[in-house]
Design goal:
The chain is about 75% helix and about 0% strand. The chain has about 120 residues and is mainly α. Helix 3 runs antiparallel to helix 4.
Length: about 120
């Protein structure tokens, strides 16, 4: 039962977080992204890859903030409700970042195949 609640919270968090990144859809299926990327122009691929790169930077920043908050929690409070909620949030962010990276790789791969310049789409930290 606890696992079910945990996964439910993660899914709800992911849905809420995906609303923040309307341009870069972390929940898009990989096969759909590949099919879409094959038919896109180089300019459209550049814009899409850039949006995903920006979303990765933004979500990574959010993740680091949550991670810093978790590290600041005293050891005796790490199993409390607040810490658990933060851990769930960090897990949802990590999953979203992973998905964004996977999709960024697809769009950047097709962009480069069409002769695009990597410097225009690289992730800038």
């Amino acid at each position: 039962m606890q696992r079910f609640v945990f996964y439910l919270i993660v899914l709800i968090s992911m849905a809420a977080l995906s609303a923040c990144t309307k341009e870069a859809d972390a929940l898009k299926p990989v096969d759909d992204a590949r099919a879409e990327a094959q038919s896109m122009s180089r300019g459209a691929l550049e814009d899409t890859a850039r949006r995903y790169a920006d979303a990765i930077v933004s979500k990574t920043s959010e993740y680091r903030k949550v991670e810093a908050q978790i590290k600041a929690i005293p050891l005796q409070d790490l199993m409390g409700k607040k810490a658990t909620a933060m851990k769930v949030q960090a897990g949802a962010l990590a999953t979203e970042i992973s998905n964004l990276n996977r999709l960024y790789d697809i769009y950047s791969e097709y962009y480069l195949k069409k002769g695009g310049d990597f410097e225009k789409i690289k992730i800038r930290w």
